[in-house]
Design goal:
The complex is a heterodimer of chains A (367) and B (71).
Chain A (H helix, E strand, L loop, with lengths): L9 H13 L15 H25 L5 H9 L1 H34 L5 H18 L1 H25 L17 H16 L17 H28 L9 H7 L2 E2 L3 E2 L3 H29 L6 H18 L3 H15 L1 H18 L1 H9 L1
Antiparallel strand pairs in A: 1-2
Chain B lengths: L1 H22 L2 H23 L6 H16 L1
The chains are: A mainly alpha (367), B mainly alpha (71).
Chain lengths: 367, 71
């Protein structure tokens, strides 16, 4: 019996992936450690991220119609495969809870200081739960609308801020030590780009699996361009103060003032975060729920949606004492913690699959 | 707070179980209750202010251990 009946088109995958990659990195700039060179670090991170994406899509094309959880069983055998799949499910679930926490932090520190954080987390989790219950097709279709809106907001704010920009803020280019630069670009590679490993749960539902490679490369490049626009906008407007603000995008857009009429547009950034973060959580949540259902050989993944969401919510409030702990974890620990899931295991899987010639045997058996 | 939490979890149970029982999805029902119990225990302990093991702290210790080996 099939768990997911929906099918998505290649173009929908592009939009979904852009939304996923922008996610919470729209407000927490990904390579903050590189200071005013963060746009360079994002581009370098894109290079690393493209290599990751090539590994994932090669795997996905090699096992058409099989999700990460299913082909882990084929590659590693039933026991080791299940252990590795469990690790991935944990990774998706925890990443989802981290993004939920970003929501809570952003809304409580900036917009609603008096409201308890749990309110925002529960509300966002409920929206994501309803999206996941409706299946991947629905998530992919909303992504088109939401991503186009985000495009408009990013370019619109950049144009409105043009008079406040000082491009000398970007000089001197490449001012930081190489070691720091590599660290920053690596953290940019793992924070938005490498997380696309979650798409190994989505790509199997593509109408044409062959499109996976081009779609994901286009999506990553577009997302990186948008992040570079955001980074350049923020650095050019804020200068060195960008490095001390927690949410530089919000601070920069706050300065928009066109004839004292068009002001206080910063709420657009909150809407961007809300829509893009929703896509990110929905994909991760979907991956975790569908993966668990496949691991335990259930007939439907729907009953797991709400309990897992409840667990994700309690995890997100448990994990950090404050906003600063969250950002510190994202910058110092996360780039190394994510490595085995984002590069190590997919690379080993691909090597083993090639050496054992696994999927070819399957095709021969079918014919 | 505890009453709110109970109400939320009771709501989830009432929302999901009738359909599952009608379709005789027993395996799904067991898994559903296992996950729900896990979530309920973690959130209840948090409300009581008990020290729940924090996965982020564990990850931090692991990563720092590995990094100190690399130097």
């Amino acid at each position: 019996m099939k768990l997911e009946g929906g099918k998505i088109a290649g173009s929908e995958l592009v939009f979904l992936m852009i939304g996923f990659t922008l996610g919470s990195s729209l407000i927490l700039s990904p390579a903050q450690a590189a200071k005013h060179d963060d746009w360079l670090a994002i581009l370098a991170g894109l290079g690393e991220g493209l290599v990751f994406a090539l590994i994932y899509t090669t795997l996905a094309v090699r096992f058409p119609g099989k999700t990460l959880i299913q082909f882990n069983d084929i590659i590693y055998g039933p026991y080791l495969g299940k252990i590795i799949s469990l690790g991935y499910l944990w990774y998706f679930l925890q990443l989802g809870s981290l993004v939920l926490r970003n929501f809570g932090d952003f809304f409580t520190t900036i917009i609603y200081p008096e409201t308890p954080m749990i309110v925002f987390i529960v509300l966002v989790a409920l929206i994501c739960a309803s999206a996941v219950r409706n299946g991947i097709e629905v998530i992919a279709r909303c992504s088109i609308l939401l991503v186009v809106f985000t495009f408009v907001v990013i370019f619109g704010t950049a144009i409105l801020l043009a008079k406040d920009m000082k491009f000398t803020n970007l000089l001197p280019v490449f001012d930081i030590p190489l070691r720091e630069f590599i660290k920053a670009s690596h953290s940019a590679a793992t924070f938005p780009f490498g997380e696309t490993v979650a798409f190994l749960m989505v790509i199997p539902f593509l109408k044409k699996v062959k499109e996976a490679k081009t779609s994901s490369i286009i999506a990553l490049i577009m997302a990186a361009m948008l992040l570079v626009v955001v980074a350049v906008r923020d650095t050019a407007v804020l200068g060195i103060t960008k490095t001390i603000s927690t949410y530089p995008a919000y601070q920069a857009v706050r300065l928009i003032d066109v004839g004292k009429i068009l002001t206080r547009l910063e709420i657009l950034i909150a809407i961007n975060l809300l829509s893009m973060g929703f896509l990110k959580i929905a994909v991760l949540y979907y991956g975790a729920v569908l993966g668990t259902a496949q691991l335990l050989k259930l007939r439907s993944y729907l009953p797991l949606v709400l309990p897992m969401g409840a667990f994700m919510v309690s995890l997100s409030t448990l994990q950090f004492g404050s906003n600063i702990e969250n950002i510190n974890f994202a910058q110092e620990i996360y780039p190394y913690y994510a490595l085995p899931f984002q590069v190590g295991l997919p690379l080993i899987s691909l090597l083993i699959a090639i050496l054992r010639g696994v999927p070819k045997k399957m095709k021969g058996a079918k014919k | 707070m505890i009453i709110l939490l109970m109400a939320a979890f009771a709501g989830i149970v009432l929302f999901e179980t009738p359909g599952l029982i009608q379709k005789k999805y027993w395996r799904e029902l067991i898994v559903f209750f296992m996950f729900l119990l896990l979530a309920f225990i973690v959130s209840l302990l948090q409300i009581f202010g008990a020290k729940v093991p924090n996965p982020v702290k564990g990850i931090t210790i692991l990563v720092k251990g590995f990094l100190s080996l690399m130097k």
